[in-house]
Every structure is written in C-alpha cells, then in structure tokens.
Specification:
Strand content of chain A: 35-45%
Order of helices and strands of chain B: HHHEEEHEE
Shape of chain A: elongated
Radius of gyration of chain B: 28 Å
CATH class of the largest domain in chain B: Alpha Beta
Number of strands of chain B: 5
Largest interface: A-B, 44 and 37 residues
Oligomer: heterodimer
Number of helices of chain A: 4
Number of strands of chain A: 23
Structural class of chain A: alpha+beta
CATH topology of the largest domain in chain B: Ribosomal protein S3 C-terminal domain
Structural class of chain B: alpha+beta
Strand content of chain B: 15-25%
Shape of chain B: rod-shaped
Distance between the termini of chain B: 66 Å
Helix content of chain B: 40-55%
Number of domains of chain B: 2
CATH class of the domain at 140-322 in chain A: Mainly Beta
Distance between the termini of chain A: 56 Å
Radius of gyration of chain A: 28 Å
Helix content of chain A: 10-25%
CATH architecture of the domain at 140-322 in chain A: Sandwich
Order of helices and strands of chain A: HEHHEEEEEEEEEEHEEEEEEEEEEEE
Chain lengths: 364, 162
C-alpha cells in the first residue's frame, strides 16, 4: 500500500520538474522572439514613415506656402510630407517652405510652426510611436567679419577641416548714401578649411548681411550672418519680422523699400506684394507674439536671404531675413528599448543634409 | 519481488523515459528556435537604400559630370562620398564607361585609382568581415554624352550596428 504512494509522489515530482523546466525554457525564447518580431515590425514602420515624410508632399501638396495653416490653425493640413510639390522626378529634394515649418527655437520665433505632436496625429502615430527627425548639413561653415573681410571655415560635423572647397559670399550692405548694394567674392579653402573673402572695395561696412555658399564636388551648404541689422526669418516667400520693429508700424511699413534677395550665387531685385499702391504687409498675432509679414511677389521659392531697408525714427535700417536651417523635430526625448534609426541624404534649398530618423514604441 | 512492485518500477521507468524524451525535444527545439541574425539582414537592406541614396544625391548634384574633365577626380569623388556616408561605413566605388556595341554594352573601368576609404591591404578583410554588406548600381549620362555605370559597394565597419 505504501509503495504506490511513493510511485505517485515520484511521478508527480517528475511532472512538476518537467512543467517548470518547460516554462523556464520556453518563456525566454518566446520573449526573445516577440521582441525580435516587434523590432522587425518597427523597422518596416520606420522605413514606411520616413519614405512618407521625405518622398511625399502631403495634402494640400503646397501646404508649406499656405499661410492659413499655422501653429494655432493646422486643421487644413490633412497629410504630412516634406517633398517638393513639383519635384516628382527628384528624389529626396525637400520643399524649403515645408521644412521651415519644423523650426521653432529660442532664437527663431516661427508663427507658422507645426508642432511634432500635430504631425504625429496627422500621420496616425500619436498613440503608438514617438519619433525624432534631426537634420545635419554635410559640411558646416562658421564665419565672422574681420575689418572688410569675411573669414570662413568649412568643416565636417566631426570638425575635420575640408580643403579645396569653393566658397562664395554674397554681401548686401548699406552704402554711404544709405542705399542697398550687393557684392560677390569667391575663394577656396586652404588645408585648414579656412577661406578669406575680401570686400575691401566697400565704402561702408557698418550694416551688412551676407550669405556664404560652399561647394565641394556639387555638395553644397550655406550659412548666413551680418552685423548691425534687424534680423528676420524667411518663411516661404514671406519676410517675417518680430514686432516691434519701430514705434509706428504703419510708417515703418510705408517707408519699407528696395527688397533684394539671393538665390544661390545670384542676387535679384524683388518687389513687395502691393495692394492699391501700398505694400500689403500685415500684422499677425499668434501664440502671444506679434509679427509683421511682408509677402514678396513673384519671388523664387529657393530664396535663401532677403533684405530690404526701412526708415525707423529717422534712421535707415537694414532688415535681413534668413531662411533658417532645421535642426531637430521630435515628439519627445528618444526612449524605449525597441527603437530603430535610419539615415538618408536630402537636399533642402540646394544644401546637402543628412537626416537621422529615430522611431520608438511608446507602449514600453 | 512481488508483481505489484515490478509494475511500480516500470511506471517510474516510463516516467523517466518520457522525461528524457521531452527534455531532448526541448533541447532540439531550443537549437532550432535560436533567433536568426536579423539585425544584420535588416541593416543590409538599409545599407542598400543608403548606397542608392548617396549615388542618387551625387547624380542630381551633377558630381559625375566632372569625371575625366579634372585631374585627380578620383580623389575628389572619394572625399565627397566619405563626407556623404555616415561615419563607420566602408565603400568601394567603380565607375565604368559604357560603350554600346550592337545589342551589348562593353564596360570599361574609368577610374585609374581606387575610389575607396579602405587601404588596399585591408580591403578584402574589411569587406569580408562585415555582415552588413550591400551594393547599388546606377546608370548616368553626363552632360557631354558619356554613358556611365556607377557601382558602389558599402559595408558597415565593425559588424552589426544597432
């Protein structure tokens, strides 16, 4: 009678041992497979989302220039994509007017900013994924004014100097008669990546704005700078100036004249949009801030610097609007153990940039 | 030894035998279910897209129009690709001049020096060791009518990068 009990106890122990061994063996394997499946799915999602961002124009296809879509009013934006609307045959060429909607920093107030949370909602990612999109020019240029020269240095993002880069500076300045003038100087970088651009012929160098373009085997980048000017930003074909620029806004606007803008190495004389013989500049209040918007008529979409002069309290001032570079556009800090990173090369307004895209699951 | 105790001993032997079969099955299953090296597979796909992306970017910028019109153009293109590629990527590029001859095309290498960021002595090892290796080919007609075939091989340095 006693022996069958031992048999059953022993059999039971073996069964318990088998079950616990099975569970402890199968469970980690299943988890590893689930984690890998999740990672593979994320990889596919990352590619699809990045392709959508970089290769499709969004809806409406010209939403970058549609100023009715802004930081407080973005309902009109039905689909999110950064590709140019007219560049169907040009892969990875982004629309500058869309890219600059991603920029809002402590130094650049952008009333037309589209928050990344809004972009995530439009793309249907908000509940499942977080993302980060960072832009980095292939070459970086630093510059400063020294007497009547502009000293520039071209390096890689890892600060390695790049020699033999063709460098061109387009300088717009106020001359001694308080009129706008532009000049161009070219040079190439030495072994240390440095080039000096000489403007010693300029009669007045007090108020200047400049753009520097570098070209190495058609890999291009640019930077902007200046001194003694009112800085503004260029959004689409609009000069956006943060108010107040003068005590009397209407007078400042009516005194505004001589818009000049640069596209690559070329400088053009532009026009302000006008309505009944007056400039159609207007005031925009958004996010507790006030801006003055100067629309430019018939301007090239690839403008990288636009300037004009105005009289403020009897003094002629140079206003320079720079097209800002995007840096980082993200829904939050990169997080989660399941994440994926992709790198692509893109062109934004003639500048070669590396785009790094991170995506991660929120539910971890 | 009674008949009952012998039956009991057989029962225990059956259980032990079953346990041995099951454990062997699990051992085999664990071996079979060992995860494949998927990161390498997926990053190879990414490398292929990146290789195409770099070639396409240079083609759109007109970089290859300088081929054969400048001295030491191989060095210039090598530095350009090095700057465009993410750090930690090996590449080896060959540019062929395509001559159409009836129904076939003859490819003649144009670059007289290698367009690569790997030393010749280390090239074979660098590309062989990398589990992430991929290539891309693009055809391009220059502004002066030259028909080029651009082929680039890319590999991640130091194994799988996650």
């Amino acid at each position: 009678m006693v022996q069958p009990i031992y048999e059953y106890v022993f059999s039971g122990l073996v069964v318990v041992l088998m079950v616990s061994t099975s569970i402890s063996t199968i469970f980690p394997i299943t988890l590893a497979h689930l984690s890998q499946t999740s990672s593979l799915q994320l990889q596919g999602n990352a590619r699809n989302i990045l392709d959508k961002l970089l290769l499709t124009p969004g809806d409406p296809y010209d939403w970058g220039t549609d100023l009715s879509i802004n930081s407080s009013q973005s309902d009109g934006l039905r689909d999110f994509g950064l590709a140019g609307s007219l560049t169907f045959n040009t892969l990875y060429r982004l629309d500058p007017s869309k890219v600059e909607r991603l920029i809002n920093t402590s130094t650049i107030d952008n009333p037309y900013y589209i928050p990344p949370e809004r972009a995530a909602v439009i793309m249907g990612l908000e509940k499942e994924f977080g993302f980060s999109l960072s832009f980095e020019p292939v070459f970086q240029i630093s510059s400063h004014i020294l007497n009547k020269t502009i000293v520039t240095r071209v390096t890689t993002p890892e600060t390695i100097p790049v020699a033999n880069v063709n460098v061109t500076a387009v300088l717009i300045r106020l001359n001694s008669a308080n009129e706008e003038e532009f000049e161009i100087a070219t040079s190439s970088t030495d072994w240390n990546g440095t080039a000096v651009l000489d403007f010693s012929g300029a009669d007045n160098f007090d108020s200047v704005a400049y753009i520097i373009l570098s070209d190495y085997y058609n890999i291009q980048t640019r930077t902007v700078g200046g001194s003694n000017l009112i800085e503004a930003v260029l959004i689409g074909n609009n000069i956006v100036v943060k108010y107040p620029i003068g005590t009397d806004l209407e007078e400042t606007i009516s005194n505004s004249r001589s818009p000049l803008y640069t596209v690559g190495k070329r400088t053009y004389i532009g026009e302000f949009e006008s309505s009944s013989a007056s400039i159609s500049a207007y005031q925009l209040d958004t996010g507790g801030k006030t801006f003055v918007i100067y629309p430019l008529s018939n301007a090239d979409p690839d403008i990288s610097l636009a300037t004009f002069i105005t009289d403020i309290e009897g003094e002629t001032k140079l206003i320079a609007a720079f097209r800002p570079f995007p840096t980082t556009y993200e829904t939050g800090p990169i997080a989660g153990s399941t994440r994926h990173t992709l790198i692509r090369l893109v062109e934004v307004a003639g500048v070669s940039m590396r785009v790094k895209f991170h995506i991660w699951r929120l539910s971890e | 030894m009674t008949h009952g105790s012998r039956t009991g001993q057989f029962r225990i032997l059956e259980v032990v035998f079953a346990a041995v079969i099951l454990s062997s099955t699990y051992s085999v299953a664990i071996f079979i279910m060992e995860p494949a090296n998927n990161p390498a597979i997926r990053t190879s796909d990414d490398m292929e897209i990146l290789a195409f992306n770099v070639l396409n970017h240079m083609v759109q910028g007109g970089t290859f129009d300088r081929v054969t019109t400048e001295e030491n153009w191989e060095d210039g293109i090598k530095i350009a690709i090095t700057r465009l590629m993410p750090p930690g990527t090996y590449f080896n590029m060959t540019i062929f001049n395509a001559t159409i001859n009836g129904p076939s095309a003859m490819l003649t290498p144009l670059n007289t020096s290698p367009i690569t960021n790997v030393q010749a002595a280390e090239a074979l090892q660098a590309f062989q060791r990398s589990p992430e290796i991929s290539s891309s080919t693009l055809t391009y007609t220059t502004k002066n009518g030259q028909f080029l075939v651009l082929r680039i091989i890319v590999a991640a340095a130091g194994g799988v990068s996650q």
